[in-house]
């Protein structure tokens, strides 16, 4: 059992085999390659991606299919290689991989990044932020769209 100190959750105990490894890190966060997926029953379905190298770095995510049940995952050859998955086929969400979407809290309301989901190989815990084909998904998908004004 290992323990890490975090800014938002205090001390967290975890099994080393529960670590997620991002072989190339995350865009904009150089050197941050080891994370934990932290969940709490009171905040389900949220999943907090807590950096093990930076106690101040934590992403709020949620399962991608909770946002868009019809999401079509496309993972490029390089990402499949980094994940340790066969290059000839696409992984299945919930079977081969776990997919999380990073949430952003904006003044207009929360959004989800469907353009670049976090893809985790369930067998070896390797992860990448995969970029979806251009035009298919938004990096600011509104989770609670503004209501249309009511005519009087």
From TrEMBL:
UniProt KW keywords: Bacterial flagellum biogenesis, Chaperone, Cytoplasm, Translation regulation
Subunit structure of this chain's protein: Interacts with translational regulator CsrA and flagellin(s).
Cell compartment(s), UniProt: Cytoplasm
UniProt family annotation: Belongs to the FliW family.
GO CC list: cytoplasm
GO terms of biological process kind: bacterial-type flagellum assembly; regulation of translation
Short name of one Pfam family: FliW
Protein source organism: Solibacter usitatus (strain Ellin6076)
Name under which the protein is recorded: Flagellar assembly factor FliW
Function: Acts as an anti-CsrA protein, binds CsrA and prevents it from repressing translation of its target genes, one of which is flagellin. Binds to flagellin and participates in the assembly of the flagellum.
Signal peptide from the UniProt entry: none
Gene name, Swiss-Prot/TrEMBL: fliW
SUPFAM superfamilies assigned to the protein according to its UniProt record, in alphabetical order: BH3618-like
InterPro entries on file: Flagellar_assembly_factor_FliW, Flagellar_assmbl_FliW_dom_sf
